[in-house]
Design goal:
By secondary structure, the protein is mainly α. It has twelve helices and four strands, in the order ααααββββαααααααα. 68% of the residues lie in helices and 4% in strands.
Length: 276
């Protein structure tokens, strides 16, 4: 039996979340955001940290199948229980599920654990990513599509498995189609956060950007996962962040929204998933 991961080993994952979330909460609290915005993010951070400290990965085939099925169901759940908005082009957009008074972006909530499962499954992992991209297409959610695409690129970089390369190519074109139909009007402190903060203060915008870069580097080099898992999670974060910078999509960690914090927190606690 493999030894458990110590608290010290879990520290990088805690830092990868805490640094940008705390910076984002401080920015929101001092720049006129609704009072509950930083509180929601800090509450999500506390829950995520508890799971990171005590979590473990699905160690049996049945538990991995159950987790995968649950993730895909949650990803599709906005089509049945989520609110509906209209995009700038007049298309229906459904990407969120309500949790009390808080809306959770399902792509950010589900994708981190999904890409970690994909990275550990050479046989079917590319199919997991394509299933996630297909679910994003019907919402449509280009941020999740591109994030999963970059995760596929990261896994392919390590494994050289053609299936992940094919998934990245298909995901790229699918995400372009999503981007043409799914853009909505930006919400303050949620979308385009780095642009908004930089317009207020170049120093603040730079600080938030540096916090995200630190998180990216910690994920890429120091969290205690196999290299393909680190590359997948780092690629995923990069995809979400770059889409938030380029268009009207939620900014992970530093913007208002519990989903990215809970989603990456869930993934960071899934230690020692057996490779297949």
């Amino acid at each position: 039996m493999q030894p458990d991961i110590s608290i010290r080993d879990r520290l990088p994952a805690l830092l990868a979340l805490a640094i940008p979330v705390l910076c984002g909460a401080a920015w929101m609290a001092t720049n006129g955001a609704p009072a509950h915005y930083p509180l929601v993010n800090l509450g999500a951070l506390a829950l995520a940290c508890l799971w990171i400290i005590g979590g473990r990965g699905p160690h049996t085939a049945l538990s991995r199948h159950i987790l995968l099925g649950t993730l895909l169901l949650v990803l599709l759940s906005p089509l049945f229980i989520g609110p509906e908005l209209t995009s700038i082009t007049g298309d229906r957009v459904m990407r969120w599920v309500p949790l009390g008074s808080v809306l959770l972006h399902t792509g950010m909530l589900v994708a981190p654990a999904l890409v970690l499962l994909a990275a550990r499954n050479r046989r079917y992992g590319a199919g997991f990513l394509l299933a996630g991209i297909l679910a994003a297409m019907v919402q449509p959610d280009a941020a999740t599509g591109f994030a999963l695409t970059f995760a596929a690129v990261g896994i392919h970089h390590v494994t050289k498995d053609w299936k992940f390369g094919a998934a990245a190519i298909l995901g790229f074109f699918a995400s372009i189609a999503m981007a043409l139909n799914g853009e909505i009007a930006p919400q303050p402190f949620v979308e385009r956060v780095l642009v908004e903060a930089t317009l207020q203060s170049i120093a603040v915008g730079l600080a938030l950007a540096i916090a995200l870069i630190i998180s990216f580097l910690v994920i890429l080099f120091t969290i205690p996962f196999a290299r393909e898992g680190r590359m997948a999670l780092a690629g995923l974060l990069f995809g979400f962040a770059i889409m938030a910078l380029m268009s009207n999509y939620p900014t992970p960690f530093v913007g208002y929204g519990a989903a990215s914090i809970l989603g990456f927190g869930l993934a960071f606690g899934l230690h020692r998933i057996p490779a297949r």
